[in-house]
């Protein structure tokens, strides 16, 4: 299988065809090899139009969802970005190409370790990974220009809102465990907040102090 051709086709048929046109984002998705973020046995499926299992009952998101959520952050290259839910590390890799610095939090150690290896193999040295409950954010590195939560939450964790810069954007799937709505919160310069509902989606659950409990 020629991964480069598969990647180009993925971008044409799943991303551009659905209305995402940011040249920087398309360039980043062409550059990052998605197949190194899935188990070797699944490499051939890496450019399909679906999420895929990555072990520990977690998933790497559908390529279109990665593109859509990234697009909503409107990154120009100067930003400090926080991601909650490192998972495979693929989304963090895309963010690393499009922003200045990426801070990503994962609660499951084997996933955090595997993501670190994949990111290192691509030489993406501007990604910092922390093993912790990301529902409380990453206080020492706050504030952030943009925050992305890649697991489904019952509500917006307040700590994340507090760690968002004025003018900053936060993208998060909100809802119950079966289905969520992708929401973008904008913290305006005057301190007020904007809220946009983007689309329906389905993510694994955000587990933590300001998320779901692990048994629920
Ligand atoms: N962005 C990932 C997909 C993540 S799947 C990718 O590109 O592959 C969601 C991830 O969120 C899972 O790995 C899960 O373990 C993690 N997660 C769930 N709750 C979390 C929390 N409170 N803090 C950090 N990570 C969390």
Describe the structure.
With 216 residues, the chain is of the alpha/beta class. The protein has a domain at 51-201: 3-Layer(aba) Sandwich (Rossmann fold). Helices cover 28% and strands 27% of the residues. It contains six helices and nine strands; from the N terminus they run ααββαβαβαββαβββ. The protein has helices spanning 3-15, 23-31, 63-73, 90-98, 109-121, 158-162, and strands at residues 52-55, 58-60, 80-84, 101-106, 127-131, 144-149, 164-175, 180-187, 193-201. The strands form two sheets. Strands 5-4-3-6-7-8-9 form a seven-stranded mixed β-sheet. A hairpin with a 4-residue loop joins strand 7 (164-175) and strand 8. The radius of gyration is 16 Å and the shape is globular. The N and C termini lie far apart (41 Å). Residues 58-61, 84-85, 87-88, 90-91, 105-108, 111, 133-135, 150-151, 204, 206-208, 211 line the site of S-adenosyl-L-homocysteine. S-adenosyl-L-homocysteine binds next to strand 2, helix 4 and strand 4.
Order of helices and strands: HHEEHEHEHEEHEEE
Number of helices: 6
SS class: alpha/beta
What is the share of helical residues? 25-40%
Q: Based on the structure, what is the oligomeric state of the protein chains?
A: single chain
- For the biggest β-sheet, the strand order reads 5-4-3-6-7-8-9
**Weakly predicted, low-confidence segments:** none
The first-to-last residue Cα distance is 41 Å
Q: How many distinct beta strands?
A: 9
**Based on CA inertia axes, which overall geometry fits?**
globular
In CATH, the homologous superfamily of the domain at 51-201 goes by the name: Vaccinia Virus protein VP39
Architecture per CATH nomenclature, i.e. the level-2 architecture of the domain at 51-201: 3-Layer(aba) Sandwich
CATH class of the domain at 51-201 equals Alpha Beta
Largest sheet: 7 strands, mixed
At the third CATH level, what is the topology name of the domain at 51-201?
Answer: Rossmann fold
